[in-house]
Amino acid sequence: MEDTATAAPHVLVLPFPAQGHVTPLMELSHRLVDRGFQVTFIRLVSVPDGLADSDDRRDISRFVDALFGCVPGSVEQLIRETKVRWLVGDVNMGMCFEVARKLGVRVAAVFPASAACLGTLFKVPQLIEDGFFDDKGFPKRHGSFEIAPGMPPLCPSQMPWSIDGPAEGQEVGYRMVSRNTQAARDHAEIIVCNSFRDAEAAAFELFPSILPVGPLFADAALRKPVGQLLPEDTGCLRWLDAQPHRSVVYLAFGSFTIFDPRQFQELALGLELTGRPFLWVVRPDFTTGDLSEAWFDEFKDRVAGKGMVVSWCSQQQVLAHRAVACFVSHCGWNSTMEGVRNGVPFLCWPYFVDQFANRDYICDIWRTGLAVSPVEDGVVTKEELSGKVEKVIGDEGIAERARVLGDAARECLGEGGSSRENFDRLVDLLRE
């Protein structure tokens, strides 16, 4: 996009380099452009992440180490070149905030997940003092605990830095989260998040410095969603057009979730068992091990005409479609907000980090969905999936609560709504 007004305020928008972070910050960028800003992000500029093209970016600890070592220097150079007045940065890139401040650039922080998640991170020093964690982020207590009534209970082993693998990976994650959160508190003049007041009333009451500006989505008369890192299959939208109203089971598990072959097969067979039309997003790297391609091809042949499998899709457009009856989701916050805004009931299947707390929002606080229950060895069986899909779709109470929450989300974004007013506050500050 070319600059249209050289006098327009110029901001640099910096996301953490993962799909669930790029999407909301790109959508926030579009809103800023609509208000007359120049944004270095829309005019796409890249900075290296410190890894080679062949490296596995799902190795979180290695990825984080590379980011810490490489990105701040690259961002400093970019700031000098672009002469921006503001850095609008993902809290998860807080390692760059001090660099910006030293160069005289002001900082606004954006948290792409829930206010409850960020507020909990603010509380970590107190939680360490209270004996829930040691000073490296490892749990010292079992069971769940509650920050405040109305917020999801938290399990010490399911914190935002909790990842599978060696202990040093946990330590790397904890250091990153702690450093970035502190940087946001020290250097950001405003902190906004991709949520809305009615969704997290207790969290916003406890943490009034966190301002909701969401749900962030591709608006402007269904402007095409932006910031997708994988190629989208647009044919699924035409397929949805041919399906009955509220009939389709939509399944998508984000960009990080990985299933082993046994779980993958149980999921596929559970879909077949429902007898319902389904749209299933299966990334090329969605499963590991020895899943037989011939087996999967036979499955797709059996369900042809009833189900559709794609490698990626425009999720916002899918969830807004009249044919979707429920969303089987990993409960990433972007997916959660997209489902909520469209009034879609959930079947929750969390994978890691904050997704368990998001599941608790959906199932226990908003009561707009149910969760799968694995058997003893951790596998969700085909019978469990099929049965829970039927329960979710058949529950009129869930459907009504999902509709009401979706209405509340849209009201917050409308004229006089709290998210709209908070965004106006951000815009006014960025113009100073």
UniProtKB/TrEMBL annotation:
GO terms for molecular function: transferase activity. Keywords: Transferase. It comes from Urochloa decumbens. The keyword Transferase applies. It comes from the Eukaryota. Belongs to the UDP-glycosyltransferase family. Gene3D superfamilies: Glycogen Phosphorylase B. The keyword Magnesium does not apply. This is Glycosyltransferase.
